Amino acid sequence: MESKWIFHKGLPAACRLCPRQCGARRAAEERGFCGADHTLRVARAALHFWEEPCLSGERGSGTVFFSGCSLKCVYCQNYEISSHGAGKEIPWERLSEIFLELQGQGANNINLVTPTHYLPQIRRALLRAKGEGLYLPVVYNTSGYERAEVLRTLEGLIDVWLPDCKYRSPELALRYSGAADYVQAVSAALDEMVRQAGSPVFAGPGELVEEGILLRGVIVRHLLLPGQPEDTRAVIRFLYQRYGDSIWISLMNQYTPLPQAARFPELNRRITPEEYQAAIDCALALGLENGFIQEGETADESFIPPFDAQGV
User: Fold this and answer.
1) Rounded distance, CA 114 to CA 98, Å?
2) Which has the closest alpha carbon to 55: 144, 161, 133?
3) What pLDDT, on the 0 to 100 scale, is given for residue 85?
4) Residue-wise pLDDT tens digits, 80-118
5) Global pTM value
6) Tens digits of per-residue pLDDT, 269-306?
7) Which residues, at least 6 apart from 158, have a Cβ–Cβ distance to it below 8 Å?
8) Which has the least CB within 10 A, 90, 110, 127, 161?
């Protein structure tokens, strides 16, 4: 229906790709809430070594960072591209070439970072690249703020789903991301991702990617926010009780206070070791085994890559 028309005919007359359904006439060069218009903008395309081990491995994940975002969290680490529009305009055909170039550099996967608002162009680029020899798993790296009916149009094109589950509190979602419907949207989106992916499948010896790389499945990330232990526990309980071992859960302590969030004093600090350990303890108490935790000083701006159009 409408969502299929979006992907088969190009940009919609009134954009409904994300839950905001802002109705922007992007084909007529009007910008949506996400900041995107009729063009495709990419800020960086390079091997990335700081994803979960089963994504980066030793060779790196072939990450493509897209400009703009439908969520725009006040604490976003990629603020330069999510809200300021940093990036380079390219045709969709160039995006297809980028996928193949990353494969040629030895990437373990193609990692689409914040892709939702460019799905019409991405779909065309993926189909072309696959027809020209792209064999790597494709990772959909998202805030989780998605429309399940739009995700269904990607069935068969995405191998690994990498969504956030940021909140279980609509009040926090509204305060920090301007999206009171985030909880409802992410719940439906996760159901669709799990349906498409099925149980996790990892590469064994002799595969075209490193052994242990995730070939198919769902990893749900949760970034701990300062002073929100109840919501973190609620997220962990929701994920494990709903999906069990059919997904992996990644608990992230890398929250970095950046200047754009200064008007929220409660966010102006890092996560304490005690807060992070409490989240881990909650997961263990539930019986969670399929999980990732971060060690060491991950809350550092040096973990934010330069958005200098490398590889674009």
Assistant:
1) 16
2) 161
3) 74
4) 888 777 889 999 999 999 999 999 999 999 999 999 999
5) 0.94
6) 999 999 999 999 999 999 999 999 998 665 454 467 88
7) 138, 139, 140, 196
8) 127
**69, two tokens:** 């975002």
The CB density around residue 222, as the number of other CB atoms within 10 Å, is 23
Q: What are phi and psi of 260, to 5 degrees?
A: -65, -15
DSSP secondary structure letter of residue 164? B
Q: Are 64 and 94 in contact (CB under 8 A)?
A: no
Q: Tokens for 72, please give them.
A: 């725009």
Task: Count CB neighbours of 156 within 10 A.
Answer: 8
Angle subtended by helix axes 119-131 and 92-104, to nearest 10: 50
Altogether, the residues listed in the chain come to a count of 312
3-state secondary structure 106-117: CCCCEEEECCHH
- Alpha-carbon gap, residue 105 to 127, rounded angstroms: 20
Contact 275, 231 (CB under 8 A): no
The mean pLDDT values, 10 residues at a time, for the chain of 312 residues are: 43 91 94 94 96 97 97 90 85 98 98 97 97 98 98 97 98 98 98 97 96 98 97 98 97 93 94 97 97 74 75 96
Neighbour tally for 181: CB within 10 Å: 13
Alpha-carbon gap, residue 39 to 134, rounded angstroms: 24
The answer to whether the Cα torsion of 299, 300, 302, 305 is positive or negative is positive
What share of residues in the chain are helix, strand, coil (percent, to 5)? Answer: 40, 15, 45
